[in-house]
């Protein structure tokens, strides 16, 4: 939603009539700065994100900055897990244009339309992308135990459980994402694949052997995490997202028919946090 602010008080003898007041639109910009890509949207359009693949470069393109300037954002809310140089460049841009900004971190508890407790031993050690992805997923499926799978440069498989009537982020697993697995084999071994191979029960060439291994590593970690939650008596909803999600989606759905692909979980979580903190005002 977009919020309208006025430049005058609506109280007192000098206030203008309601429809005669000068107004401006409040636009909140949401940023998800990951290892290789920056996703962004505005608070009123969480389903329409844009992606800039920065690949580790520290300078944003002029076209992106012009696009943001045209939006005239009044606030910026974001999270980042790396790419400190790019984050620094962005904050310099916001400062130069007088735009308030805030990079959010994981917190002990989220309180909004629902409550999510952070069960990590050190809540600040939990990557903010994982925390806000969990909040985003929980906002879509209130009160449900969730397995939140995010597949990008790294793959994370995080568990949200219900304990004594409250939702708890109780931890998760981290492994290299599909591309990082592939690149580590190419760089660290004598494997010389020609590309992505077929997924087969008994791979008979290097391309298929690597592709099958990468896929089954991901299916296996999801299976283990789901089993751990089921052992706690949770009827688990699997929600997966991330840049590599479309590639693995057919295999994930085949193994876990109830799994749901939901993009932009981190941005959804940031939107929840921004609204909860009153950052729209």
CATH top level assignment of the largest domain: Alpha Beta
Order of the strands making up the biggest sheet? 8-9-12-11-10-13-14
**CATH architecture term of the largest domain:** 2-Layer Sandwich
Shape summary: globular
Q: How many domains? A: 2
Distance between the termini: 12 Å
SSE ordering: EEEEEHEHEEEHEEEHHEHEH
| Average pLDDT metric | 87
Helix content: 25-40%
Structural class by helix and strand composition: alpha/beta
Q: Using DSSP, what is the number of strands?
A: 14
What percentage of the residues does DSSP assign to strands (E)? 25-35%
- Spans where pLDDT lies below 50 across 5 or more residues: 1-24
Task: Write down the Rg.
Answer: 22 Å
Topology of this structure?
Elements: E1 3-6, E2 23-26, E3 28-33, E4 37-42, E5 50-53, H1 62-71, E6 75-80, H2 84-96, E7 101-103, E8 109-111, E9 115-118, H3 128-140, E10 146-151, E11 154-163, E12 166-176, H4 178-188, H5 206-231, E13 237-241, H6 245-255, E14 260-261, H7 265-276
Parallel strand pairs: 3-6, 6-7, 9-12, 10-13, 13-14
Antiparallel strand pairs: 1-2, 3-4, 4-5, 8-9, 10-11, 11-12
Helix pairs in contact: 3-7, 4-5
Descriptive overview:
The protein is an alpha/beta fold. It contains seven helices and 14 strands. It folds into two domains: 3-103, Nucleotidyltransferase, domain 5; 109-264, ATPase, nucleotide binding domain (Nucleotidyltransferase, domain 5), CATH 3.30.420. A hairpin with a 2-residue loop joins strand 10 and strand 11. Helix 3 (128-140) packs across helix 7 (265-276) and helix 4 (178-188) crosses helix 5 (206-231).
């Amino acid at each position: 939603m977009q919020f309208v602010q006025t430049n005058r008080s609506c109280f007192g003898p000098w206030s203008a009539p309601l429809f005669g007041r000068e107004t401006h639109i409040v636009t909140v910009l949401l940023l998800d700065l990951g290892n290789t890509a920056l996703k962004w949207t505005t608070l009123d359009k969480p389903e329409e994100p844009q992606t800039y693949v920065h690949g580790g470069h520290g300078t944003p393109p002029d076209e992106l900055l012009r696009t943001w300037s045209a939006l005239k954002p009044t606030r910026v809310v974001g999270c980042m897990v790396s790419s400190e140089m790019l984050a620094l460049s962005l904050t310099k841009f916001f400062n130069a244009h007088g735009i308030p900004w805030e990079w959010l971190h994981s917190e002990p508890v989220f309180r909004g339309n629902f409550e999510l407790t952070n069960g990590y031993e050190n809540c600040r050690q939990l990557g903010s992308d994982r925390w806000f992805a969990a909040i985003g997923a929980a906002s879509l499926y209130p009160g449900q135990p969730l397995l939140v799978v995010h597949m990008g440069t790294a793959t994370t498989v995080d568990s949200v459980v219900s304990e004594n009537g409250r939702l708890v982020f109780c931890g998760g697993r981290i492994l290299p994402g599909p591309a990082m697995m592939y690149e580590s084999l190419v760089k660290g071994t004598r494997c010389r694949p020609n590309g992505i191979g077929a997924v087969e029960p008994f791979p008979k060439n290097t391309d298929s052997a690597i592709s099958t291994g990468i896929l089954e590593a991901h299916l296996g970690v999801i299976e283990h995490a789901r089993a751990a939650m089921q052992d706690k008596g949770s009827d688990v909803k699997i929600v997966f997202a991330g840049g590599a999600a479309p590639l693995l989606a057919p295999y994930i759905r085949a193994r876990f028919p109830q799994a749901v692909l939901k993009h932009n979980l981190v941005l959804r979580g940031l939107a929840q946090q921004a609204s909860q903190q009153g950052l729209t005002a």
